């Protein structure tokens, strides 16, 4: 299964693509969609749509995983992120992709084991899980890859229909996926 993970933003939207087969994760690609701040907001949203569509056409993912909005103290920022998420969801729907959404805390917990992990910890774990050198990647890319990895961990490969209900059960079923 090929998974496209997206970390939506109105100035930078990160994307990461992995393959997940037989409980193995393979890094395919990642990048960022940079949106100039001077553009009209509708133009920014169109750029996200157009660039995500191009990524989908090029890499042909089977699943689409998206990070949900994080609500901080600035309501306007949260609303703008909501627009970027909406455009991302629309793009996935237009391309007939199954969409799953994960909270930032859920992604961090799936990748690092702790819901309050830092961006540096996420980047480190993604480098280990995906066997890539992340020093060249932006945080938006590793965040998007983390969303894709979270989705892979949450939904087993088609050859295995059972989901783990807790960490202990997951570790017992998947000793090869535990990073030491």
Automatic annotation (TrEMBL):
Cellular component GO terms held in the UniProt record: cytoplasm; Holliday junction resolvase complex
EC code: 3.1.21.10
Necessary cofactors: Mg(2+)
Location of this chain's protein in the cell: Cytoplasm
GO BP, sorted A to Z: DNA recombination; DNA repair
Active site residues per record: 7, 67, 140
One Pfam family named in its UniProt record: RuvC
Positions of Mg(2+) 2 binding: 67
Catalytic activity: Endonucleolytic cleavage at a junction such as a reciprocal single-stranded crossover between two homologous DNA duplexes (Holliday junction)
Keywords: Cytoplasm, DNA damage, DNA recombination, DNA repair, DNA-binding, Endonuclease, Hydrolase, Magnesium, Metal-binding, Nuclease
Subcellular location, principal: cytoplasm
Residues given in the record as Mg(2+) 1 binding sites: 7, 140
InterPro entries hit by this protein: RNaseH-like_sf, RNaseH_sf, X-over_junc_endoDNase_RuvC
GO molecular function: crossover junction DNA endonuclease activity; DNA binding; magnesium ion binding
Cofactor-binding details, from the entry: Binds 2 Mg(2+) ion per subunit.
Subunit structure: Homodimer which binds Holliday junction (HJ) DNA. The HJ becomes 2-fold symmetrical on binding to RuvC with unstacked arms; it has a different conformation from HJ DNA in complex with RuvA. In the full resolvosome a probable DNA-RuvA(4)-RuvB(12)-RuvC(2) complex forms which resolves the HJ.
UniProt xrefs under PANTHER family: CROSSOVER JUNCTION ENDODEOXYRIBONUCLEASE RUVC (PTHR30194)
Family recorded in the similarity comment: Belongs to the RuvC family.
General function of this protein: The RuvA-RuvB-RuvC complex processes Holliday junction (HJ) DNA during genetic recombination and DNA repair. Endonuclease that resolves HJ intermediates. Cleaves cruciform DNA by making single-stranded nicks across the HJ at symmetrical positions within the homologous arms, yielding a 5'-phosphate and a 3'-hydroxyl group; requires a central core of homology in the junction. The consensus cleavage sequence is 5'-(A/T)TT(C/G)-3'. Cleavage occurs on the 3'-side of the TT dinucleotide at the point of strand exchange.
Protein name, entry field: Crossover junction endodeoxyribonuclease RuvC
Organism: Melioribacter roseus (strain DSM 23840 / JCM 17771 / VKM B-2668 / P3M-2)
Gene field: ruvC
